[in-house]
Protein 1
Amino acid sequence: MKVLSTPDEMRCWSDARRRAGHSIGFVPTMGALHSGHMALVADASRRCDDVVVSIFVNPLQFNEAADFDSYPRPIDDDVAMCEAVGVDAVYAPTAATMYPSGHQTRVVPGELAEVMEGAMRPGHFEGVVTVVAKLFGAVRPDTAVFGQKDYQQLAIIKRLAADLDMGIEIIGHPIVRETDGLAQSSRNVRLSADDRRRAVAVPRSLDAAVAATAAGATPAEAVAAAEQVVAAEPRARHEYTVVFDASTLRPLDSFDEHSEPGSARVATAVWFDDVRLIDNRDLFPDD
Ligand SMILES: Nc1ncnc2c1ncn2[C@@H]1O[C@H](COP(=O)(O)OP(=O)(O)OP(=O)(O)O)[C@@H](O)[C@H]1O
Ligand SMILES: CC(C)(CO)[C@@H](O)C(=O)[O-]
Ligand code: BAL
């Protein structure tokens, strides 16, 4: 497995693979890898001949300096994990390589970035879309796999690839959960043992929204059912719960045209101390 650290090295590797007739699958990450990331890698390797994983904690997408500083960075473990599952190349540039002095171009996302995470984290998606465009430019993948855990990010990146004619297939991989239902996330390691147990309130709140919807609730009632579960957990600080159209991400007032699987979702953000957890679910699951 190759570990590459500049865009030129990355492009050169990728061009050679493509000349050899290989297709390239790409999994962009910020490191602190867990089995959720490994599921994305497995997905990419089923679809493509070679798999590239990028590891870069992108300063441009952090709207809080403390969150950036405390983001876990176990780079040696991450590289070992990639090697163990047969990743072909890790792209791990430094911030100075990605954003050398004089770097000034930004990619601006559209309306999809204005709600939920975009409303709560000003500038976040401009940072995400800019770095993903740069990573795509260095890796030049045929296919890129993103997690549905960051559902809004996935929708925005699908638009990025389509709107900028990138010719890259964007795949959304289902959320990988711990046995108690908590979505796997790099930030989970920052929860205390007690908060980790209590954090199950986050997926349970989404379960409550799904159950309420199945019982005929309106979107507002489904949100209230979810919020009630979080409110019952004294260590949790609720930030938002939204029921939205799965394609446009617009909040829903009614389910009149949204009763099919995949048509409407619920998303939430909840804090435990200084750790912010996000999660989302299909409101009309077909299982
Ligand atoms: N539990 C999961 N299931 C599916 N995909 C996931 C999961 N966790 C992360 N991903 C995906 O992995 C990719 C890289 O995410 P990232 O490196 O930010 O990890 P993370 O666990 O989401 O960390 P955090 O949310 O704490 O920043 C993203 O496409 C993300 O959606
Ligand atoms: C896509 C991404 C790697 C861009 O930094 C990041 O937002 C993430 O890990 O989801
Ligand atoms: N996985 C989302 C990246 C972020 O929280 O910045």
Protein 2
Amino acid sequence: MAALRDRNDLFQKFYSKVTTVLNIEEFGMVLLDQEKKTYKIIIDQAATFARLHPGQEAVLEMEFQASDAVFQRIASSTEPVYFDVATLSGLPDMPAYVHFWKAIHLRQVAAVPLKVGGEVIGAAFFHVDPVTKTPAYSALLQAVSHQLAVAISNIRSNEQVLQYKQMLEQENVQLKEEINSLYNFSEIIGSGEKMQEVYRLIRLVATTNSTVLVLGETGTGKELIARAVHNASPRKNKLMVKVNCAALPTNLIESELFGHEKGAFTGAVERRIGKFELANGGTIFLDEIGEMPLETQVKLLRVIQEREFERIGGKTPIKVDVRIIAATNRKLDIEVNEGRFRPDLYYRLNVFPIHLPPLRDRKEDLEALTWYFVRKYSKRTGHQIKTIATGVFKELRSYHWPGNIRELEHLIERSILLMDGGVLKQVQIPLGQAKNAEQRPVAGQGLNPGQHDMVPTSEKMTLKNMEAEHIVKVLKICQGKIAGVDGAAALLGIPATTLHSKIKKLDIKKVDYLD
Ligand SMILES: Nc1ncnc2c1ncn2[C@@H]1O[C@H](COP(=O)(O)OP(=O)(O)OP(=O)(O)O)[C@@H](O)[C@H]1O
């Protein structure tokens, strides 16, 4: 019985044991709920005439209180309890099944507590002949009940495991769908010439097994491109496992990539599978590869060359079939020249480079990207945005986007949070960038990224002027509102009272910020 895995099998087996070994035709079983406050009948094997009794169905549906006198009596006993049904049914506050026993003319019921590890989980009931009440018979009832308790406890654990398994499977399917809908090719916005070239390269390389190196400034969408390559490849139904080489401390990166054996180093309490093993059959995406420590670079080189590695502290080489996509915002050739990146690894990775243009060089896509993020965030925030003022696009085009698409995305998100009504009239281009947009030189048109903050001129550069200018700008964005979550003080990160006194001190007037 203890080996049984589902309730039906248990019933069959229990039935055959009880009827043959104990010679009992009518029996039942009740189980406590998880909290052990109530219990229900889960097996009810009654004689035919009992099954025809109109009260039976109702009793089977009922929930009983574990604190009732019958259950308490059984739970506190270490051996079978024999109930005389006529006497029992005459007592006050009896559970309904006792009256049902009386109605179907049972005379004596033996009840045995079901215990696992000393804990009561339920009880078994047997309709017994009063003359059979001997110690030997009691011992037999107890032995059968003990097996029953172990079996039901195993079945419950098995049911729980199955439930978790189903949950995980569902979650897995859901996550895969989510990843697909988040990152399929069509989610890459941009149809300008520069992006067309990127798409052509993705199509060319996706179906091969070649290593791909995605190069581009921060926030240009390198991860999106890596996903697109993976999703357009024959490996699309397997995982793309991402490793952020910059986010991991040097001493952990190898264990993260290759895994470790139990006890390989202090703290390695369990064996751990590395990302390369996890990505077997699929793709590994090594983000920020330029940040990888030199010692790890040697090991990576070996995996690329031999498709083989060992777990830390492990002796057996592990073979994997993994496609490698790496990305970096560093100029790897310079890193090689300066001794921070191994040349042999660089040549291995640089098989098929895809250069992602910075946003300032693909301004033809700005409008489509803006609309894309406006839709994304209006959906999330519940704001209905139908129109974007033309001034907004003008302003966006005049900015040089050091943080690229990620910066644009955040800017739109913030602007939507702060806006009122259905027209996006204004975006908060970072400080010192909003005014005189047309005259301002922008990076990519003669300026280097980062230089922009130093451009504006002479006497207006005092701290006081800059502070006043910034406060006016923020007040404009907030349409003059000072306090509250969407007020200027919150946006500036200072208390409203401080802002009031600054406005006074800097002699800022309403006409300066209200149209
Ligand atoms: N062409 C695009 N269309 C739509 N969304 C994009 C596009 N490019 C980037 N994004 C979005 O911009 C954000 C930044 O992209 P991603 O993380 O891929 O950049 P990255 O180049 O890998 O950045 P980093 O170098 O900082 O890791 C993400 O939210 C991404 O979805």
